[in-house]
Amino acid sequence: MSMIILVSCITLLILLIARFKWNAFLAFLVVSLLCGLLLGMPAQEVVASVNKGVGDTLGSILVIIVLGAMLGRLIGESGAANRIAGTIRSLFGEKYITWAMAFTGFVVGIPLYYNVGFVLLVPIIFSVAYHYKLSKVYIGLPMLTALSVMHGFLPPHPAAMVLAIQFKADLVRTFIYGVIVAIPAIVIAGPIFASAFKNKQDREGSVIAVPAPQEGSLPGIVNAVCCSLSPVLFIAFASILGLLGSGNPVLKGTADFLSQPAIAMLLSLIICSISLGLSAGISLKNLMTSYAESVKDIAMILLIIGSAGMLKQIVVDSSLSVEITSWMLKCPLPPLVLAWLITAGLRLSLGSATIAGLTAAGVIFPLVEQTGIPPEFFVLTVGAGSLFGSHVNDTAFWMFKEYFNLTLRETFLSWTVMESMVSVIGLGGVLILESVVRGS
What we know:
This protein has 20 helices and no strands. The chain has 440 residues and is an all-alpha fold. It folds into two domains: 247 residues, no CATH class; 135 residues, no CATH class.
C-alpha cells in the first residue's frame, strides 16, 4: 500500500507540474505534505520532516551553488568564456571546427550553468557558422552537447552537487569518473552526430544574441582557463596535498580544509574577482552588483532543490525507504539501470533535467547504501537519465528551436536525438566504468 501511495504522489507531482503548470516548489511542497499524511505520519511529524528536508538539502549545498552562480557570471561577463572559445577555434582550424566547439563547451561548461552558457555562446556559434559558411546546427550542436553533459553529469552544477552530497559520494572521484564518461558521450553525440547536419540550409530570421565583447577587452587565455577551472584545480591540489602530507597533521588539516567545495569555490571567486574583475578595471561596486544579480537568477533553482529534499525526507522518516529498498533489491534489473530508468521516466514527464534528477534521488536514495556500488556511479547514472528525451516540456528544447529557427520536426531530429544519445551513452559508460573499478 505504501508503494502505491508513493507512486500516486509522484504521478500527482508530474501532473501538477507538466499538465497544470504549477510552480515546481509549490508542487513539491503540496505533494510532500500529502504523501506524509497518507503514509500515516502525524501532522506535526510531517511538518518537521518537510522542514528538515529543506534545511538539510540547502544547508549542504546553498553556499556552493550561490558561489558557483557568482563565478559563472564573472566568467561570462568578463569575456573569459569568449577568450577560451576564440583561442580553441583558432587552434583547431576549419577542418576540426566542430571538435573545437565541443571542447569549448566542455571547458566553459564546468563553471557555467546551461542556460547561461547557451545564451553566452550562441553569438560565437553564429559567428563561426557565418565565417566558414556552414550550418548553424552543424556548428552549434557539438558545443551545446558538451554544455548539456557538463550540466547533467558533473559538480559543481546544482543537481550533480546535491546528488553527490545526498548519496555521500566523493566529489573528486565523481568529477574524474564524470569526465571519463562524458568524453565519449560528447564525441559521439556532438561532432560525429552533428556531421549529419553539415549541409543543412539555414533559414533566415534566427534569433541573434548580444554581440560578444571586442577582442581587445578580453582577458588572457591562461587567466581565462585557470579561472574557469579554478574550483577543480583547488580541490585537486588539496587532494594531492592530503596524500603528500598524510603523516603531517598540519598539512592534512590544511588539505581537508581546502578540499571542502565551499572553500574551493570561495577562494576561486576571490582570486577570479581580482584577476578578471578588479585588474581589468571593473569596480568592486559593479562586481558586487553583478553577484547580487546572479543570485536572483538562481533563486527559484534553490527553492526547487530545497523542495525536492522534502519528499526525500518524507520517504526516509515514514520508513517507506525500507520498503523501497526491499522492492528494488528484488527487481531483476541491475540497480544502476533501474535508477536510470526511473530518472529517464521522470525527465520525460517533468521536462526539467534538474527536477527529474532531484526527484529520482528521493526515490532511489534508500538503494544506494544497500548495493555496495560506489555512490559516485549512482550520481552519474541519475545525471545521465535526467538528460534523456528532451521534448516540448523542456525549456532547452524551445531555446534550441527558436535560436536556430528550426521546425518542430527538425528540433526533434537534432536536439531530442542528441540528448537521448548522450543519456544512453552515459549509462553505458557508467556501467562499463563501474565494472572496471569494482573488478580491479
